[in-house]
Design a protein that fits this description.
Distance between the termini: 39 Å
Shape: elongated
Strand order of the largest sheet: 1-2-3
Structural class: mainly alpha
């Protein structure tokens, strides 16, 4: 494990040397980003999530053109397009080594598909978050049953998504904070939500 981390750090550092050398010529703002990346990678795997966030931040800066590579000349022997591609590729290589996560959320339930969602997540042992509308839970016996399934399923986290869903008139709903807050409180009370 330590050997893999060391190899990964060396790969990133070698890719970053091009950018660091570019900083001295161009004065780009990447030194803070690259220094923090190098430091976080050498600290080990305990901060894996932070490393991923930092890599994504650097990739975002690269894609937005905030990292500037110097033009090809007698001092800089690397074409800026090639340097940028190599740097991007090194970031993707590091990101591909990290664990991947998908967060599933479902809004506006319980609705017609809620029973299918509950069955699928139970059979596949997948955790989800649902954002529930209080009014929907009382619209029929079936939707009430689906709501009860959600509440009793340890794989499902249930959250407040208002009682009326703003009656789909969001501008008017949110321009009166007292009405919006009381609508969310009504949903919390009627559904017995804790969050």
């Amino acid at each position: 494990m330590l050997k893999k981390s060391f190899v990964a750090v060396l790969a990133v550092i070698s890719a970053l040397t091009t950018v660091l050398s570019c900083n001295s010529i161009v004065g780009s703002t990447t030194s803070n980003l690259t220094d923090s990346l190098e430091n976080s990678l050498t600290e080990g795997n305990t901060k894996g999530k932070q490393d991923t966030v930092k890599l994504m931040d650097i990739l975002d800066s690269l894609n937005r053109g905030k990292i500037v590579f110097p033009a090809l000349d007698s001092i800089n022997k690397i074409d800026p397009k090639v340097a940028k591609r190599q740097f991007r590729d090194s970031i993707y290589r590091e990101l591909n080594k990290k664990d991947k996560h998908i967060y599933l959320t479902f809004d506006d339930g319980p609705l017609i598909g809620s029973s299918a969602i509950d069955s699928i997540i139970t059979s596949k042992d997948i955790k989800i978050s649902t954002f529930l509308v209080g009014k929907h839970a009382g619209m029929s016996k079936r939707l009430k049953r689906d709501f009860d399934r959600y509440m009793n399923n340890p794989l499902v986290e249930c959250y407040n998504h208002s009682f009326t869903h703003a009656a789909n008139k969001f501008h008017a709903f949110y321009s009166n904070p007292e009405i919006a807050v009381s609508d969310f409180e009504k949903c919390e009370t009627s559904l017995g939500l804790k969050t």
